[in-house]
Design a protein that fits this description.
- This protein is α/β, with parallel strands linked by helices.
- The protein has 2 domains: 2-179 and 230-257, NAD(P)-binding Rossmann-like Domain (Rossmann fold, 3-Layer(aba) Sandwich); 197-228 and 260-327, Alpha-Beta Complex (UDP-galactose 4-epimerase, domain 1), CATH 3.90.25.10.
- Helix content is 41%, strand content 19%.
- The protein has 11 helices and 15 strands.
- The protein has helices spanning 11-23, 39-46, 61-70, 85-90, 92-112, 146-164, 197-205, 233-249, 265-276, 299-305, 314-327; strands spanning 2-6, 27-32, 52-55, 75-78, 117-123, 134-135, 169-175, 177-179, 212-215, 227-228, 230-232, 253-257, 263-264, 281-284, 293-296.
- A 7-stranded parallel sheet has the order 3-2-1-4-5-7-12, sandwiched between helices.
- The longest helix is centred in the N-terminal third of the chain and has 21 residues, at 92-112.
- The radius of gyration is 19 Å and the shape is globular.
- It binds nicotinamide-adenine-dinucleotide (NAD).
- Residues 7, 9-13, 32-37, 57-59, 79-81, 83, 98, 102, 121, 123, 175, 177-178 line the site of nicotinamide-adenine-dinucleotide.
- Residues 3-258 form the NAD-dependent epimerase/dehydratase domain.
- It catalyses: UDP-alpha-D-glucose = UDP-alpha-D-galactose.
- It is an enzyme of class 5 (isomerase).
- InterPro entries: Epimerase_deHydtase, NAD(P)-bd_dom_sf, UDP_G4E.
Length: 330
C-alpha cells in the first residue's frame, strides 16, 4: 500500500515507520514539521529502508492537497498532534487547533481523494476518570482535559465520516502509556523536555536531571500514586500494522492498545532504581488533568487482529529506554 504517515519524525510515528519499512510491503511518505519530532529519527529511518520525507505542517492545507493530488494514498496513519496533558489545560486552543482542526483538514482531504483506510492515534485520556479499574472500548468517554477532548472530537468526526462514506474505514487506536525504545537502539524518545514518567526516570538515572517529581501521592490508589498501563513502543508499533491489515479486510474498529496491567508511579520508580541505580525523587503537588488509574482491556485487539505483545515486562521497557537515553548525544 501507499501510506501517508503524519508525525513520522516523532516518538511513536518513527517506530511505526520503522516497522512498516521492515515489513517491506509498503511505500511510505512521511510528513512532519519537526516542531517536536527529530530529523535524526528520519536520518536513522533512512538506514532501514527507502521512503519520502517532507518537512511540512498540517496547517499548510494547500501544500497538503498538492501531496494528495500527486500521490494516490491507500492509507493514512495519523500521529501528528500535541500530546502534553498539562499544557492542554493552560493552552487548550493550541490542542484543539492541531489535534482536532488539523485532523479534520486531513480527513477532509482523505475523503476528497478517496483514501480508504485511516489509522488514528487516540488516547486513554479520552476515558477521563473511569469507574472501573480496566477500561474497554465501550467504557464511557468523559475526558477531563483539553488534550483528551481534542482527541475525542476527532474520533467523533471519523465515526460520522465513515457512516456517511462506506468506502472510508478507520482504526481508532487508544494508546495507554507508551514507553521504551527500539531494541536495536536505533530510535527512542528524543525531546529533552518530555513529561513521560519512564523517560523522566531514565533522564534522572543518566544525570540529565538532578531529581524527578512524583506528582501527587494522595490519590485513591494502593500507594497513593497514579496507576498506568505501560506498553513497550515496539508492541505498540506492531499494533498499527495489525490494525491496518484488519480494517483493510473488515470494517472500521476501535482498539485499546495496552497490556491490561497497571503499575503505580512509585512501582515504576522502584523498577527504574533496580534497573539503573538510585536517584533523587521528590513528592510534588498533583498536576491538573491526571486521572488516578488508567488500565487497558485490550482483548479486542488481540482477538480480532491476532496482535499479541512480545515485550510485556516493565524492567525490559525501562532498560530499553535507559539504553537509548545513555546513547543520546546532545
Ligand atoms: N506518547 C504517548 O504516550 C501517547 C499516548 C496516547 C496517545 N498518543 C498519541 O500518539 C501520537 C504520537 O505521539 P508521540 O508521543 O509520538 O508524540 P511526538 O510529539 O513525539 O510526535 C508527534 C509528531 O507530530 C509532529 N507534528 C505535530 N504537529 C504537527 C503539525 N501540525 N504538522 C506536522 N507535524 C506535526 C511533531 O513534530 C512530532 O514529530 C499523538 O497523536 C498522541 O496524541 C501518544
Amino acid at each position: 500500500m501507499k501510506i501517508l504517515v503524519t508525525g513520522g519524525a516523532g516518538y511513536i510515528g518513527s517506530h511505526v515507520v520503522k516497522a512498516l519499512l521492515e515489513s517491506k510491503k509498503h511505500e511510505i511518505v512521511v510528513i512532519d514539521n519537526l516542531c517536536k519530532g527529530s530529523k535524526k529519527a528520519i536520518d536513522a529511518l533512512k538506514t532501514v529502508g527507502e521512503f519520502e520525507f517532507i518537512d511540512m505542517s498540517l496547517e499548510d492545507v494547500l501544500r497538503l492537497e498538492e501531496l494528495f493530488k500527486t500521490h494516490k494514498f491507500e492509507a493514512i496513519i495519523h500521529f501528528a498532534a500535541f500530546i502534553e496533558v498539562f499544557e492542554s489545560t493552560v493552552k487548550p486552543l493550541k490542542y484543539y487547533l492541531n489535534n482536532t482542526s488539523n485532523a479534520i483538514n486531513l480527513i477532509t482531504l482523505a475523503n476528497k481523494y478517496g483514501v480508504k483506510n485511516f489509522v488514528f492515534s487516540s488516547t486513554a485520556a479520552t476515558y477521563g476518570e473511569p469507574d472501573t479499574a480496566q477500561v474497554s472500548e465501550t467504557s464511557p468517554q468523559n475526558p477531563i482535559n483539553a488534550y483528551g477532548r481534542s482527541k475525542l472530537m476527532t474520533e467523533w468526526v471519523l465515526k460520522d465520516v465513515a457512516l456517511a462514506n462506506k468506502n472510508f474505514r478507520y482504526a481508532i487506536l487508544r494508546y495507554f502509556n507508551v514507553a521504551g525504545a527500539s531494541s536495536d537502539g536505533l530510535l527512542g524518545q528524543n525531546y529533552p523536555n518530555a513529561t513521560h514518567l519512564i523517560k523522566v526516570a531514565t533522564q534522572t538515572i543518566s544525570g540529565r536531571r538532578d531529581k524527578m517529581s512524583i506528582f501527587g501521592d494522595d490519590y485513591d490508589t494502593k500507594d497513593g500514586t497514579c496507576i498506568r498501563d505501560y506498553i513497550h513502543i515496539e508492541d505498540l508499533a506492531d499494533a498499527h500494522i495489525y490494525a491496518l491489515d484488519y480494517i483493510k479486510e473488515n470494517d472500521s474498529e476501535i482498539f485499546n492498545v495496552g497490556y491490561g496491567k497497571g503499575y503505580s508511579v512509585k512501582e515504576v520508580i522502584d523498577a527504574a532504581k533496580e534497573v539503573g541505580g538510585d536517584f533523587r525523587v521528590e513528592i510534588s503537588d498533583r498536576r491538573d488533568g491526571d486521572p488516578a488509574c488508567l488500565i487497558a482491556n485490550s482483548d479486542k485487539l488481540r482477538k480480532l487482529t491476532g496482535w499479541s505483545p512480545k515485550r510485556d515486562d516493565i524492567k525490559l521497557i525501562i532498560s530499553s529506554a535507559l539504553k537509548w537515553e545513555e546513547n543520546i548525544k546532545e
